[in-house]
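User: I'm putting together notes for a lab meeting next week and I want to include a structural view of one of the chains we've been expressing. I don't have a solved structure, so I'd like a prediction I can at least talk through. The sequence is below, exactly as it appears in our construct file.
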Amino acid sequence: MKVFKSKRGRVTLYLACLLLLIVVLGFTYKSLPYEYKQPTKEKIYALKARIEITSYQFDDGQNTVFADYSDKKILAIGDSQTAAYRWQYYLARLIHADISTHAKGGIGMLAMVDGDRILSNTDGVGLDNTGRNNIARLSSKEVGDKDYIIVMGLYNENDCFEKHRGSRYDMYPTDTTYCGQFNYMVKRIKEELSWANNTRCKLILATPHLFGKYPYADKDAYYYRNIGMLDTLKVLSVVNDMEFCDLTQLAGIDSTNWNVFQSGKLLLESSPYYSMAQYPNNRDNLHLNQRGHMKIAVAIAKWLTDNNVH
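Assistant: Thanks for the context. Below is the predicted structure for the 310-residue chain, given as structure tokens.
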């Protein structure tokens, strides 16, 4: 009986030590600078995407044979659609590429390249899996070994486009227009590529898909397309020597299937962020769900394959 108690005591002690170790490691990991945590996070999300594709129950085009980019490295730059860490890792599996991420929910073009301040929580409407409150300035280290940089989204710049479109040759900070900020964003990316002595890297713009309204905006992609956003992006892509991937045409997402490919989330009235949303009764038909991210990944993979972008 004494032996049994002694063994049980040792087991209890071992478990307590293990729990203490886990807690210490957890606090140590949390205190690490973001750049040290990012590689681990990316490996976790890449593994998750691999598992999700293996067990994916729908045929959304992911079974097509795409071009092989196994010797290529890609950087995805974006806002909450990219900070959800899904479409780019689905794409990585579809074309066998090495893809990393520079993204954060809620940011615009300037923050994508110059970093941002701490932003308030939006209670999940604007998913951000980066595990941080702000995003660092884009660095030459991030772009130094990349063959492609995909800028995906610009979903938070719609209001700027409507009110301050500007013209094709505008340049921030002299011109604070949509066009000026876009041109500056590309200029900054090219600066980092130049400092990294990486002149082979190709820049790709993946446009916003045909999204709907959501709690923080009451206008959909059809409205912005009608006032010329897509045409403007085409012109800016030419001006900046960027490849143009039109997700409004390629993604297969539109107003007839938002219930299939969009989040559809509603803010609860009990949420502390309900009063912060200008249109809290709108469903979230802007942010993608799992199938929506797969459709974006398939669209970009097909576009790369069909256009022989090498």
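A couple of points you could mention at the meeting. The longest helix spans residues 2-31. The two ends are 73 Å apart (CA to CA).

User: Perfect, that's what I needed.
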